[in-house]
Amino acid sequence: MRFHVLTLFPQMIEQGLSESITGRALKQNIISLNTVNIRDFAHNKHNKVDDYTYGGGAGMLMQAEPVYQAVRSVVSQINKCNQVHSGDNSEKNTADENTSYKNTAEEIKNHNARLIYVTPQGHVFNQQMAAEFAKCDDLIFLCGHYEGIDERVLEECRIHRDYDLISCGMLDEAVAALALKHADKLLERNRGIVRENLAILDAWVQREPHLSYVKPQAGTTALVSYDLDVPSYDFCREMYHATGAFVTPGDCFEQERSMRIGYACDKETLQKGLEAVSAYLAQKK
């Protein structure tokens, strides 16, 4: 499989993928990596790729032309590579600037490739999507920056789907592209953490006489009820000031005398947090 990453920070992608499992896969030629610097397609003095949004507004957008030309360059490489493998020696100028957006979208589809826009507004990536992508010969990751990318490129290139680490992103979207390469290992690691922590939480609830809950069948949070005559907002606020334990009041979800506890953190953090809650409950007896 060939991975193509269009980004403003190609070195970050190359360094990140040169380690661990993907690093070994690259050395063994199981996969290949092609990083494309979108700035190389900005035909101005300072390789500027950002511009103000049409009609004003906050933030900057990545310009349509550099992004589109970067996509065209990758499509051209894929086409030439497929010609070599098929023995087709005919000359085709696939990087012609006059090639239409429609043809670009059709070429990507015909080459068994996918163009994926990595964005905070995208769908949450999961194992089913990983299995779908595994059937492709080429994956093209378009990594946004600033406030995003000019919508004309996204619409005309008919982006297959857009993905993100979670439903809202804090880091540059290029980091999400790195995570997609390690999907199997990330899911295996995260499931292991959640299952181990849920067992710790379950045992803790059973030991605390004032607590009860319905054990979650999925997810990373649990709603734990207590039998003390204290409103949940007061309970959680007082506990935080007394012990530093931070949980969400059940009244936020119209569930009185309860608290929501998350257990997707590392084991040590969870254990210390539960000990703090136990210490507060002991004071209330």
User: Structural class of the helices, strands and pairings?
Assistant: alpha/beta
Strand/helix succession? EHHEEEHHEHEHEHHEEHEEH
Instruction: Give the uncertain stretches in residue-range form.
Output: 93-102, 159-171
- Rg is 25 Å
C-alpha termini separation: 61 Å
Kindly estimate the percentage of residues that lie in beta strands according to DSSP.
15-25%
Number of strands: 11
Globally, the shape reads elongated
- Count of DSSP helices? 10
Strand order of the largest sheet: 2-1-6-5-7
Main sheet: strands, sense, barrel: 5 strands, parallel
Please estimate the helix content.
40-55%
Rounded average pLDDT: 80
Please write out the topology:
Layout: E1 2-7, H1 10-17, H2 20-27, E2 32-37, E3 50-52, E4 60-62, H3 64-86, H4 101-110, E5 113-124, H5 127-133, E6 138-143, H6 151-156, E7 161-164, H7 174-181, H8 183-207, E8 211-213, E9 221-226, H9 232-243, E10 248-249, E11 258-262, H10 267-284
Parallel strand pairs: 1-2, 1-6, 5-6, 5-7
Antiparallel strand pairs: 3-4, 8-9, 9-11, 10-11
Helix pairs in contact: 1-7, 3-4, 8-10
